[in-house]
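[Automated response] Your request has been received and processed.

Submitted sequence:
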Amino acid sequence: MRNANATTMRLTADTFRTLYLEHGPRAQGFFLRMTGYDRELARDLTQDLFMRLWSARGSYDEGRPFSTWMFAIAYNMLKNEYRRRMTVMEYVENADKEEPITEADHLEQEQREEMLRSAIGRLPEPQKVVFLLRYEEELPLSEIARVCDIPEGTVKSRLFSALTAVREYCKNNENQ
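Generated structure:
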C-alpha cells in the first residue's frame, strides 16, 4: 500500500527511510525488468538511485508525487546504463498468478508468457519503458510523461505502437 502522505512530507532522514521502504521494492522491480532480470545490477541501481535521491533531496518538489521524481531519475539512470552497456533488455512478466490445474494448462500458460516476453523484448526502448511504467508500475499517463520528459500525447502514441506491435507479434506466432 502506498502512503499518500509521503509525497507532502519534508525529506528528512526519517521520512526518506519510510519512502525507501515504501518505494524501494517498486524501483528494484522496475530495474529488474528493464535490465533483463539481472538481480545484482537491479540491486546496485536501486542503491545508487536512492543515494542520488538523498543527495538531490533539496530539488524535490513536494507538490509532485515522490514516485514521479524517483522514476524520472531511475529512467535517466537506465538510459545512461544502456549507453554504457548497449545490452538488449527483456521484459519478464512478474505477476502473481494461480498455478494451472493441469500440466497442459501449465505448458500453455508458459508458452503465452514466453510469447509475451519475446514480443515486449522486441520493442524499441522508448516503447518498452512507457509500456513497463504503464502496465507494470501502473503509473498514470501524466506521470509517465514527466518521468520520460515527453508530452503526454507521445506517451499515448508509444503505448499504442507498443500494444499494436505486441498484438501483431502474438497473432503471427500463435501456432508456433
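Summary generated for your ticket: Confidence is low (pLDDT under 50) at residues 1-9, 87-98. The longest helix spans residues 13-34.
If you did not submit this request, please reply to this message.
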